[in-house]
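I have been asked to look over a protein record a colleague put together. This is what I was given:
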Amino acid sequence: MRPRTGPTFLRPGRAPAFPDPRGADDDGLLAIGGDLSVARLLLAYESGVFPWYGPELPPLWWCPDPRGVIEIEDLHVSRSMRRFLRRRDFELTWNQSFHQVMHACGQERDAGTWIIPEMERAYGRLHELGHAHSLEVWSGGQLVGGLYGVQRGALFAAESMFHRMQNASKVALITAVRSLFTQGIELFDVQFTTPHLISLGARDVSRNEYLRRLAAARLRRLDLSDIRLTVVE
């Protein structure tokens, strides 16, 4: 294991580079500074790193240990949720309203958000270039839930989700997991586990295991621009 040396300071505008992610501090903080250029963001996800910070702060880059993931075999769907899914009192789309979904994810948090305007612009560019994707949940023509994330090869890094209707975020996550594994995704990253995510089957893996699996997954070539959404088993 590489010794932890504290966060590295990155200069904006420089060629994108990150230190060894195994050198992150005890909280998972690896680097401070840099920018949100397309090249830097893509390298970050390929390296197991992601940005997470608030207004009026420089970019903070993280690689926590442990790391939250969802495996298709661990996905937990309760009986009541199965009934809800089969009723289909909603409609689902893929990559139809990325900007709306990301903005809603930032608006639905009482304790503040890291989805600040510069993040919205940066991930919007990733989406326009085919590297970031969204799943939308609709009811009565209104956007009531969804999630978005970044793809690198067979990695899908789920960034955030939201709901404006009961169960809508669960619908989004369950559908995304089932659909993306069917499409060929091998590593579904949720960054940190929470009680809500654990209830749906998320678990922690060590940073070393995550990086090992990422090294293989990122080399695969998958086209997620338009996929078939799998709702029920």
Summary: The chain has a mean pLDDT of 94. The chain is about 30% helix and 25% strand.
